[in-house]
């Protein structure tokens, strides 16, 4: 018997595949367990080093001052967290969080190796249910992580809750490029990236998922609208590299 469409159990995207919501987090975890060991190398190869410039721009927008508190959600191997820690200084505090232990442990080891000890903490946390008190942080960043979250509105609302009045959220994420770039972008995403993943990381499937997840992510105006729905104000975005990446920002008032 065919189940009517309005009676179908809810599904969410895992790349181009539709899966039950309770399965997505585990499948995303498997992807990042697989890619963790080559994550930084593949970021450099896939973006031609551009990810460093995108993160540098994001950090230039934080407005953080010495002594303030910042949270890097889904922070992986810690690029943004390291920059945040430099901005808040020894009297401030940065928390690097990630739901994936493999990624978080590599980020922790990397930051400790760089000498960040007294002003950086590490918390394994689900972005949808952040384990922090209300009004805890002056700035929150999430870089290339929101598209992997199962319930994006819940994650945005959770980040809004822990942000102090006057604080801001910065979302660095792949987005929708300008029309002229799309044919080349598609060829690169679905031809070059999986091949590179297979050659370097021995894992073409994970990098195919990552390319698909980018295509399924909301475009710039839609994400700004989701941020407003979560309670952020003065939401705007700045396109980088022709819209291949965008930095969205919203404020807590």
Task: List the SSEs and their pairings.
Blueprint (H helix, E strand, L loop, with lengths): L11 E3 L2 E3 L1 H15 L3 H9 L2 H11 L8 E5 L5 H10 L4 E6 L2 H13 L6 E5 L12 E7 L8 H11 E12 L7 H20 L2 H13 L3 H10 L3 E8 L4 E7 L2
Parallel strand pairs: 3-4, 3-6, 4-5, 6-7
Antiparallel strand pairs: 1-2, 7-9, 8-9
What does this structure look like?
The structure is a single chain. The protein is α/β, with parallel strands linked by helices and 253 residues long. The protein has a single domain (14-132, 139-179, 207-251), classed as Rossmann fold (3-Layer(aba) Sandwich), CATH 3.40.50. Helix content is 44%, strand content 22%. The protein is built from nine helices and nine strands. The strands form two sheets. The chain has a seven-stranded mixed beta sheet, with helices on both faces. A two-stranded antiparallel ribbon has the order 1-2. The termini are far apart.
Helix segment tally: 9
Percentage of residues in DSSP E strands = 15-25%
Overall helicity: 40-55%
Outline the biggest β-sheet.
7 strands, mixed
**Could you name the CATH class?**
Alpha Beta
Under the CATH scheme, which architecture would be assigned?
3-Layer(aba) Sandwich
Shape: globular
CATH superfamily: Vaccinia Virus protein VP39
Rounded mean pLDDT score: 92
How would you write the strand order of the largest sheet? 5-4-3-6-7-9-8
Indicate the CATH topology.
Rossmann fold
Q: How many runs of DSSP E, i.e. beta strands? A: 9
Structural class category:
alpha/beta
Question: What is the number of domains?
Answer: 1
Radius of gyration (Å) = 18 Å
Gap between N and C termini, in Å? 51 Å
Element string (H = helix, E = strand): EEHHHEHEHEEHEHHHEE
Model regions low in confidence, pLDDT < 50 over at least 5 residues: none
